[in-house]
Amino acid sequence: MDALTVADLMHRRAEADTDPVPAMAVSPRDSVRTAVCLMRSGHVERLRVLDDGGGEVGVITWRDVAAAANRSDADIRRDITDEVLPVMLGRHADEVRADVHHRVVVLLGAVEERVVGERIAHAVEHVDGVLSVVNAMAYRRDTIAPRSATGHRVCDPPWYP
């Protein structure tokens, strides 16, 4: 899916399409992975596709991405079980299980540190065909400093990212 560009998957908006489209946009030359990252980070279902002059040439949606991925849950589970978990956890790979339903991955089990669990979830998000990841793993130690309501670590001054 890395070789696909937005232009390969986007479609033209119908004149009658009145659904609001978010302000976030991609170029037809951007990778599909870039569009997926933007949709995930912005919590949106679709993105405008703009040409170099800023004119809208189409939209790309989760449905477009999912249709292109067209991978079975079993294939996704196999990639996670055979490739991601052994690399991330080594001999402890069997301590985490990936349940996949309709390309949504639920990670179960336990890891030593919270940061390891978050890294695994992040890696799984990048497996081709995955639409979203639910990290339900338990962890024995929380090595990440808690964050305040503003998103800053509690121990950091507010200007520290």
UniProtKB/TrEMBL annotation:
Source organism (scientific name): Virgisporangium aliadipatigenens
Record domain CBS: where: 18-76
The protein's name: CBS domain-containing protein
Residue ranges of domain BON in the record: 72-141
A Pfam family: BON
Keywords (A to Z) from UniProt: CBS domain
Gene3D superfamilies associated with the record: 3.30.1340.30, CBS-domain (3.10.580.10)
Protein's UniProt keywords contain NADP: no
